[in-house]
Amino acid sequence: MKAFASLLVLVGGINLFSFIIFSMVMGGHAGNGKIEDGRYYLGNHSRYTEVSASVFQYSLWQSHCLWITQPLLFVGAYLRVAYEKKEQRRKRKLV
Q1: Distance between CA 24 and CA 69 in Å, rounded?
Q2: pLDDT one-digit tens code per residue, 69-85
Q3: pLDDT at site 90
Q4: CA 68, 71, 73, 76: dihedral to nearest 10 degrees?
Q5: What are the pLDDT digits (tens) for 21-36?
Q6: pTM score, two decimals?
Q7: Nearest CA to 30 among 39, 40, 38, 20?
Q8: Mean pLDDT, rounded, for 42-47
Q9: From its phi and psi, is residue 28 left (phi > 0), alpha (psi between -120 and 50) or beta?
Q10: What proportion of the chain, given as a percentage, has pLDDT over 90?
Q11: Which residue, among 4, 3, 2, 9, has the nearest Cα to 72 in the 3D structure?
Q12: DSSP characters for 75-86?
């Protein structure tokens, strides 16, 4: 259970970190972006950066993945804390 919870935290954390770095480097993300006249733009606070279609699609895919991985990160963190508390109670009973 501890390894599973750690995996959830790791996957969620890596995706969040990569999303933040990507958005900072590229000047925004597709969730705030737009497509106009066949041109693709990443958005960041009403500022737009033109990118290729593949970069836009990757950013859109990663934005959607956050809706899955972020709750998993929080569930994994909760399970880790619950597991640690359970272990501490078990150790106190043994002493």
Answers
A1: 20
A2: 999 999 999 999 999 99
A3: 87
A4: -120
A5: 999 999 999 999 999 9
A6: 0.80
A7: 40
A8: 92
A9: left
A10: 85
A11: 9
A12: HHHHHHHHHHHH
Residues in the chain, total: 95
On the 0-12 / 13-18 / 19+ scale of CB atoms within 10 A, 72 is middle
End-to-end CA distance of the chain: 24
- One-letter amino acid identity for 30? A
Cα dist. 25→20, 28, 47, 53, 83 in Å? Answer: 9, 8, 14, 17, 37
CA–CA distances in Å: residue 1 to residues 36, 49, 76, 93:
47, 43, 10, 21
Of 32, 52, 29, 25, whose CA–CA distance to 40 is shortest? 52
Do the Cβ atoms of 73 and 12 come closer than 8 Å? yes
Alpha-carbon Rg for the chain, nearest whole angstrom, is: 19
Residue 65: which residues within 8 A CB-CB, separation 6 or more? 15
